[in-house]
Fold each of these.
Amino acid sequence: MRWLGLDLGGTNIKSVVVQTDGEPVVVGCDTSETGARDGPAAVVERLASAGHAAIDRWGPVDGCGVGVPGTFDSDAGTIELFPNLPGPWRGQPMVEPLRVALDLPVSIINDARAFTLAESRIGAAAGASTAACFVLGTGIGGGVVVDGRLHFGPHGRAGELAHQIVVRDGPPCGCGNRGCVEAVASSRALAALAGQPTIEDVFRAAATGDQRAADAIETVADHLGVAIANVITMLVPERVVIGGGVAGAGADLLEPIRRAVARHTVLVPPDWYEIVPAALGPYAGAIGAALWSFDSQPEVANRARSAASGGTQLAGDRPVKPDRSPGGGLRRSLRPPHPPP
Ligand SMILES: [Zn+2]
């Protein structure tokens, strides 16, 4: 069985095909431009084109998952809010046009929840019963896994870790609220606080002794530390995964975050949890979207399994989870076969 995963970002659309027979593997992955300024309808067409291109190269596939950067109505298959993408997205159909264009069942998931699903099943949080993920970038995404399952919630709305308020009456957030951790700790907020054009410049300046940049990193790490400490206190996750573009700063950011979390976490001993970098790289969201397609469409998975096994009756089966036994072979096998461009 093969599943198409599409990850819609502000700049790029990432596509992968994941095979889930036996040990899951990424069969192929690719990146194309979103062209967000052309508006919602053009972007949906580009998603379909990216899907077609992936299927032509690595298909056929049994279903498609699409990861989107915001909230949606999962019954109607329409978008509600994309805080970081231009254009009138509210009410834009997403599932139906992709279903028609690709002639496939299509499942929709928030991109950070897709990231969480991938990292929890086959990445940095594999084997952890309870985990939380933060995706640090232009915005901040989040997701939680409880008792080994992605906590999806109504319309996939559960796990918005970035929109917990860490500064009462703080700066406005893209979600419409004020003082969310996204509003004060995104890459944009960090660059503005440090007085630098990009976050790469922030970390470069801090490394060469720029006090304003160093202070900005400490401040942002402290906001993130409060948010992560809140999640640790509520859920007691075994692992907290930090991913996304900002996490590319590595230890320069991870260490201040770890110190801040330790400062703000009182009830959970530090040896109960780990704060770890993401493992799957830039295609994690697309891989998670493909896995969500597999997870959320058990009847499709059953049909495909039944056809492959010569008609064996499998109706009522639950979706098969990939083997999460120790050793990491599964994790390695899901790494994209070539580095992204
Ligand atoms: Zn918010």
Note: Residues 163, 173, 175, 177, 180, 182 surround zinc ion (CB under 6 Å).
Amino acid sequence: MFTYDRFVVEERASRDEWTPCEYCSRCVVCTGGVGFDTRSARRYREHYCSGAWRSCARWAVARAIGIDKVPDDLLPNDHDRADTYILEVV
Ligand code: SF4
């Protein structure tokens, strides 16, 4: 799904020579798939998806168990919850 916000993420990434998150095309925060209110989703995209993806809780879980298994309602800043998913697989 192509969204304006996703375009913004990719545009910022190219302009600032940042690499967008590798999961942008499949993560609900980036695709606008479900759940998050518009303002929060935009804030997450601007902060995490377009630059600080290494500090995203969803990214950490995706790396550990796969993006398809990341719960849709896991917030990018919910590291405590992310840790519980990661600890289940290590
Ligand atoms: S929310 Fe996290 S995992 Fe999802 S696209 Fe953004 S940085 Fe990547």
Note: The mean pLDDT is 83.
